[in-house]
């Protein structure tokens, strides 16, 4: 999988914790200094989930925990994302801060 600049910004946004779409979008816009659209970020996250660079989760309030899900079968606005070890390796190899 070829990783774009947008992908790297999305990976950076989900490095430390499970993050929801509004938080990811805000962080990507901040770090990229650009006007990135919600559909662009959703497409990036879905592609990276398919490529194993991020994992998608739904929060189960009854169990108070995250459950892994297939993001293509869910509405992205209700999902949480987190970087995988493969995504972290890609980010560390390609991220230039600032």
Any overview of this molecule?
The protein is an alpha+beta fold. The protein has 4 helices and 4 strands; from the N terminus they run αβααβββα. It has helices at 5-13, 21-32, 38-50, 85-94, and strands spanning 19-20, 54-60, 65-69, 80-83. Strands 1-4-2-3 form a 4-stranded antiparallel β-sheet. β2 and β3 form a beta hairpin. α1 (5-13) packs across α2 (21-32). The longest helix has 13 residues, at 38-50. It is globular. The two termini are 24 Å apart. The mean pLDDT is 93.
CA radius of gyration is 13 Å
| Spatial strand order of the main sheet | 1-4-2-3
User: What general form does the structure show?
Assistant: globular
Structural class: alpha+beta
N-end to C-end Cα span: 24 Å
Mean pLDDT: 93
Secondary structure: helix percent: 40-55%
How many helical elements?
4
Could you spell the SSE succession in H and E letters? HEHHEEEH
Topology summary:
Elements (H helix, E strand, L loop, with lengths): L4 H9 L5 E2 H12 L5 H13 L3 E7 L4 E5 L10 E4 L1 H10 L4
Helix pairs in contact: 1-2
